[in-house]
Design goal:
mainly beta, 8-stranded antiparallel beta barrel
Length: 185
């Protein structure tokens, strides 16, 4: 009998949800916007925490991101503030991750009316060191997030679920999962 991990089941559910909802995304519902250049982007600063496959939180992190071209592209820097441990074992020391991603905004009329912005993204990430979570410095990056409606002062709040791993290219490949909360200026 084949064993299915919680991570594989969760990934299958996310993919299934995306495939189920994809036909409901219509290009003609997307708001037309003039493309902007890199310098017309948005800075976001925030914090987060890494989580392990069993749900344990292991460390806090700080983040700075820059999104541009109507928030379709993201350049991000993450700093894991302390060693990431699980059951007394050190999985990774304090380190940094640089990431560049392409984001796709999910446009549905119900969501657009609320002002909530859902997005998914994927790209590349570079870790400053290898460890028991990622056996290579070059990794893939995925994200799924929400941007809440713009505040009176013009800012927004963004929550994202993120993952980086090398897709099994080099062992070990446990990957890093983390939750982030940021204020977008």
């Amino acid at each position: 009998m084949q064993h299915f991990s919680a991570r594989r089941i969760a990934m299958a559910l996310w993919i299934g949800l995306a495939l189920f909802l994809a036909p409901r995304v219509r290009a003609d519902e997307a708001p037309a916007a003039e493309p902007t250049d890199f310098l017309d982007g948005h800075l976001a600063l925030g914090t987060g925490m890494s989580i392990q496959y069993d749900g344990t939180s292991t460390t806090t992190l700080g983040l700075a991101t820059w999104t541009w071209h109507d928030d379709h592209y993201e350049l991000a820097a993450f700093r894991f503030s302390s060693a990431q441990r699980r059951l007394g074992e050190t999985l990774a020391g304090p380190n940094s991750v640089l990431e560049i991603s392409r984001r796709w905004r999910l446009n549905w009329s119900l969501i657009d009316r609320s002002g909530l912005q859902l997005f998914v993204g994927g790209g590349a990430a570079y870790k400053t060191e290898t460890d028991e979570l990622n056996g290579s410095r070059l990794n893939f990056a995925e994200q799924f997030g929400w941007r809440f409606p713009r505040q009176e002062n013009g800012g927004q709040v963004e929550f994202a679920i993120r993952h980086i791993s090398n897709a099994g290219i080099k062992k070990p490949n446990k990957g890093q999962d983390f939750l982030t909360l940021a204020y977008v200026f």
